[in-house]
User: Fold this.
Amino acid sequence: MKGLNLLCCCVASLLLLSTAEEVEDTSEPTKRDRSHLENTLKLNEDKPADDFSGVLQRLRKIYHSSIKPLEQSYRYNELRQHEITAYPGRTLGSSATDGEITSKPMVLFLGPWSVGKSSMINYLLGLDDTPYQLYTGAEPTTSEFTVIMHGPKLKTIEGIVMAADSARSFSPLEKFGQNFLEKLIGIEVPHKLLERVTFVDTPGIIENRKQQERGYPFNDVCQWFIDRADLIFVVFDPTKLDVGLELEMLFRQLKGRESQIRIILNKADSLATQELMRVYGALFWSLAPLINVTEPPRVYVSSFWPQEYHPDTHKDLFLKEEISLLEDLNQVIENRMENKIAFIRQHAIRVRIHALLVDRYLQTYKDKMTFFSDGELVFRDIVEDPDKFYIFKSILAKTNVSKFDLPNREAYKDFFGINPITSFKLLSQQCSYMGGCFLEKIEKAITRELPDLLGSIGLGKKPNILSCDVTGCGETPKNRYRKP
Assistant:
């Protein structure tokens, strides 16, 4: 009997211990302190956001009056169909809307499936365990392009509505078709960080999936967002380091945007030190052929989710890496107006160079044409070998254009294939008594108006007070194409 009682006591003890372990296992994991995140991103500050409405109004006026006329007259949007070869890097839309000019900085999340892109957005915005959080899981969960933006209340917006709203910057997405718009979704969230920035979550890259299976041009859509992103987070985790065709194509699209790219090795606290070093080296080995830069890219190693770091891992290192990445994000937000003005100026320079080149092609064509000449054969000869007629060299010799800013010659073969040279006018003919000359106006915007506007922000002046004495923007170049 005593033995039976002893056995019963042991069984009861085991049951109690098992129950206690189950209770312990079902307890919620400890959440990480968010004070460093709120301090770095200045989420606790009560001061109102900087009011740049006057600067934006002036920027819109400069674009519509000085840049857009030349852009439309010489069909710069047609050259953009070949922008990867013509101009690697960020470009404006075919004809920028006010929504694109006034839009907030955009942060784009790219990478393989289930590496923690959506979890990272939830963590940055503190959306975990709230009705606003993005769905996450071990399987491919994000099949849509999700735009997370600010709004007075939680609201979901369908892609067709976003594309139809001209006040937003997403109306050009209609060109990718209705199948894509069904895969586009917008979420408005009342969050202080979203007052200053917009996040875009993308479908994870699945290497065994063919383009046509998505039902829309995935790479073209990615290119559209890449062109407009101010910061691009390319996220990996220790289990997905292999590079396939789709990821290779993605990095090809990122060419020229290396300064905006931040590579993130997520879920780093799931590895021991030695394993982490091996994974870090393997990631560099995979990415080295894809990133054609002299300096190795910066890789941020951490774990971006709200749970505490796993024990016996490099917590201090992960925290410093996270703060460093947050500082990069905050820098983009703080410099959003300066970056936008500089970007519009860069766009204006490219439009001006394009107009000068088309003008030079047209002038050469007119010089070579005779009464008995075949126009098509004459121009084909010019397009096939522009160096024979000093098209590009003459632009460098007669105008203040850098040879490093010239587009690819091959792009103009396609451009003139759909735009006959006879459909354009010479720059000297693009003048009017009231409106002035297109070339003079865009040169004034590049050399005086936009630098002055940029200087007025740094000096805290009103944007309508412009002075080249302060900004040192230089002398306006003479228009060599205007008839005397």
